[in-house]
Amino acid sequence: MQAATPTRMRAPPPASQEFLRLLLAHGCKPSLGAQDDINALHFAAQKGHAEALRHLINGGLHVNSRSRKGMTALMFATLHGARDAVGPAGSALVGSS
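The chain above was modelled as a monomer; its predicted structure follows.
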């Protein structure tokens, strides 16, 4: 069984944004991915957590990071119908590089 690490945690709901800020401030490495190279940005996009997306990108996670299958966070958001991640609230994923 693989141990859970902060980078394998799912993005927190909007009420837990302070928890995400604390993880990032204390050295959590959100760029580390699971075995399929899916990272925290992909999980946040999949769930439509726009504020978490902004924190992760501002924390240094590259907006165009790709999974092993070549999927970006924007693709994850679109695939899973996470409108908050791709609409105006989730503008961090659109137009960033």
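The chain has a mean pLDDT of 74.
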